[in-house]
Amino acid sequence: MDNWILMAPRALNNQPLGEQTLSAEQVKIKVTYVLLTNFDALCYAGELPVAYPKTIGRFAVGIVTECGEKVYGVEKGARVFIKGARPCGNCLHCKKGDTDNCEDIQIAGQDFDGFLRDFVVCDYRRVAVLPDEVDNFHALCIEHVALAENIYDQLRLPAGSKVAIIGGNATAGVLAQVAMYHKLIPIVIDDDAADLERMRHAGVYFAIAADDELEANVAEATSGMNCDAAVYIPCSKINPDIAARVLAKYRTLVLDGMAPMKF
Ligand SMILES: [Zn+2]
How far is the CA of 194 from the centre of ligand 1 (A)? Predict the structure, then answer.
């Protein structure tokens, strides 16, 4: 039974899991799909701090194969998303029961064991049963979509507002699509031609290169007003200065990412 453990930077070992016993409130899941992302690449390369040794894999879907006797709302055979982020349980917010505002969110593959393994045993509240209309691939993007929706909610922009998204990776793609869904106009800025082409293919009208023409192109896209908000994606490693250059005065700049990057 596979279990891929990161022992140190660039040292990934397959150490088969032994038999795992189930407590009353736990479920056992056969992992069927894991999405590897830039986050795993950064952990693997040693660019993010990892509490070694840790099994990698942050985003996963599986089928429940066993349930403890005090498990509610999850049944054997259910297709589930395994939550890759947990509140710490120790900070002030957690102690007050306000776990949504935890100050030290624990991440799978970094703080606790991730899901690139055959079986996961965990508390039944750490899984979400998937409706039939959400396929496995889209389920793997749940956390990205949730992050994008949260940003949308907090920006409170009226329809038609122009939002710069700086960085053209997968996170940016989800952000742009969520923005369009809510009738905002994304302006994706990146230094990689292939990423920009992918954005255009996904229906993003303004996919602009981070080159000498950037300011002129953004001015044209915004009728000279600049952007109503900017979302900078740190792991894109594009010059963060761009965000300030394309943002109108007194508007909001969001730092968005699945991983904290140090500049
Ligand atoms: Zn906490």
Answer: 39
Question: What is the phi/psi pair of residue 4, to 5°?
Answer: -90, 110
**CATH 3.40.50.720 fits domain 144-255:** yes
Report the top-level CATH class of 4-140. Answer: alpha beta
Q: Are 185 and 205 in contact (CB under 8 A)?
A: yes
Q: Among residues 223, 195, 225, which one has the least CA distance to residue 210?
A: 195
Question: What are the tens digits of pLDDT across the range 116-156?
Answer: 999 999 999 999 999 999 999 999 999 999 999 999 999 99
- Amino acid in position 254: V
Domain with CATH 3.40.50.720 in the chain: 144-255
Ligand 1 center to residue 183 CA distance, Å? 34
* CA 42 and chain centroid, separation: 13
Q: Which residues surround ligand 1, an ion (CB under 5 A)?
A: 87-88, 91, 94, 102
Q: CA angle, 109 as apex, 255 and 133 as ends, to 5°?
A: 75
Q: Output the DSSP codes for 18-49.
A: ------TTEEEEEEEEEE--HHHHHHHHTSS-
- Tell how far the Cα of 100 is from the centroid of ligand 1, in angstroms: 8
* pTM attached to this predicted model: 0.88
In whole angstroms, what is the distance from residue 61 CA to residue 56 CA?
A: 14
Ligand 1 centre and the CA of 103: distance in Å?
A: 5
Contact 119, 31 (CB under 8 A): yes
Between the CA of 89 and the centroid of ligand 1 the distance, in Å, is 5
